[in-house]
Write a structure and sequence with these properties.
Aspartate Aminotransferase, domain 1, seven-stranded mixed β-sheet, alpha/beta, globular, eight-stranded mixed β-sheet, Aspartate Aminotransferase, domain 2
């Protein structure tokens, strides 16, 4: 498996002040004061404000056009109800559409239209509503639907044992949490307790969740700005991004970014942990020796290495854990999203056995820490991955997809870069390959054109088409998706 890597900028365009019709229906009773009014904040700024973005913009003219042309009366009614009762937030409410069914690789909206889901919030390794996952949930509901704290249950024990068996080396101890953000918090607390230090080194442009501790180590301005003081001691370094390398590697990584981490570790002297996504979900894929250099630096300076694999754990890259591509073992790894079988929110912190050292502390203590139904879903998901040979499918089709994307790049001037690792794929759109000017409006146009043709995916950083289909996908289905993409690219390039 080749580690194809590149990077784009973590930015997108908010078209200032233009609220969708679903935003306009609310009276804004809680935002009467100027300092509380999000619409005022938008209108006071330029018409095209550049802000970092984890996902596609949900308040752009392109979204408004989609809503006008592709939704009927019933859908508009429910979107208005959604916008009325849910707090509005970037990347989320107001929503795009109303779904009524999901199965396999497909979503179905309220009007009966089907979409191949190459987004899925990275939860659908085995597709949606896999029969074995659903049956495991039903069976467990008939036995034990909830486990009160102080007690344990067999599905939770079996899942912890299975994860310890799957994880390499001495990653043998597990804690569960109801979501990835919570598991990140547990990792941070354990790092502090185990080392007696509190400082961390993480990366700009990273995303580890949306809680205050997670955004403190995260590098997304969209989540960090305007919140107030964040956790102290959260140092940040540039990510491995050869296209925008501060050391001028000009597209050929010389590992200066990895070596800089050791420089910071040495200067700080008391860092508890380096925490980072093994591979950024856009994806940004570090070069083969990157994590070896970081691992060795952590060992020399007594810092723990925590890898966040929440979005791409359990096979998406063609291996059960993404760090296995790099021949290293972290001190902790956090997994989530797909762990719950595309049904339940469930995450896990998996750590070296030697880190089971603070029995007097409460690292998580979550109400749903050992939810038996969620654990049953996870066990069924892992069984499907193994019995249906989905990791091999991810490797095989990932290699095929990468070849096809490279061929598309030759045919389409909008494509500035392509990269992939298994079925974690990205197509970066640029107005000019020489200047690397981002093709942000064009990326949105391609996304909505693809939706109209039955293909759903995510736009990140304003200009990167991020493609993460279920690992159950077939080659003909993959070809259909790329055919749609090519049709959309051709349409946009000709306008």
């Amino acid at each position: 498996m080749n580690l194809e890597w590149a990077a784009g900028e973590e930015q997108s365009v908010v078209h200032g002040g233009q609220a969708s019709r679903f935003e306009k229906i609310q009276s804004d009773p809680g935002c009467k004061h100027k300092h509380m009014d999000p619409h005022q904040r938008l209108s006071d700024k330029s018409s095209q404000e550049i802000v970092p973005s984890e996902g596609d913009v949900n308040r752009s003219p392109f979204r408004e056009e989609w809503l006008q042309n592709h939704t009927g009366a019933e859908t508009r009614h429910w979107l208005e109800e959604d916008a009325k009762y849910f707090l509005h937030q970037s990347l989320s409410t107001p929503c795009l559409n109303v779904l009524q069914h999901c199965e396999g690789i497909y979503l179905e909206d309220l009007e009966g239209r089907r979409y191949m889901d190459f987004h899925g919030n990275n939860v659908h390794q085995a597709g949606f509503a896999h029969p074995r996952v659903i049956q495991a949930i039903k069976d467990q509901l008939d036995k034990l639907s909830f486990c009160t704290r102080r007690y344990t249950n067999i599905p939770a024990i079996q899942l912890a044992k299975k994860l310890a068996e799957l994880a390499p080396g001495d990653l043998n101890k597990v804690l569960f949490a109801p979501g990835g953000t919570s598991a990140i918090g547990m990792a941070l607390k354990l790092a502090r307790a185990a080392t007696g230090r509190f400082k961390t080194i993480s990366m700009w442009d990273s995303f580890h969740g949306a809680s205050l501790d997670a955004i403190s180590i995260g590098g997304e301005a969209l989540f960090r700005q305007g919140i107030g003081p964040l956790l102290p001691g959260t140092e940040h370094v540039p990510p491995p991004d050869p296209a925008h390398c501060p050391w001028g590697c000009a597209g050929t990584c010389n590992l200066k970014c990895a070596e800089y981490i050791e420089y910071v570790l040495e200067k700080e002297g008391d860092t508890a942990a380096v925490i980072a996504e093994t591979v950024r979900s856009t994806p940004y894929i570090p070069p083969p020796d990157y994590w070896r250099v970081v691992r060795e630096a952590c060992d020399r300076h007594g810092a723990l290495l925590i890898l966040d694999e929440i979005p791409h754990c359990l096979g998406r890259t063609g291996k059960m854990f993404t760090f296995e591509h790099y021949g290293i073992i972290p001190d902790m790894v956090v997994i989530g999203k797909g762990l719950g079988g595309a049904v339940f929110p469930l995450a896990a912190l998996i750590v070296r056995e030697s880190l089971d050292c603070v029995p007097e502390r409460a690292l998580g203590h979550y109400t749903h820490e050992k939810n038996p139904v969620a654990c049953a879903a996870a066990l069924a998901l892992i069984e499907v991955l193994e019995s249906e040979n989905l990791l091999e499918n991810a490797r095989r089709l990932g290699d095929y997809a990468l070849e096809r994307m490279h061929a598309m790049k030759v045919r389409h001037p909008l494509i500035g870069d392509v990269r992939g690792l298994g079925l974690l794929m990205g197509i970066e759109l640029l107005k000019d390959r020489a200047t690397r000017e981002r093709a942000t409006p064009e990326a949105e146009q391609v996304m909505y054109a693809a939706l109209a043709k039955g293909l759903s995916f995510k736009v990140t950083m304003g200009n990167i088409l991020t493609l993460t289909p279920p690992l159950t996908i077939t080659q003909p289905q993959l070809d259909t998706a790329f055919d749609i993409l090519e049709d959309c690219l051709r349409e946009i390039e000709q306008t």
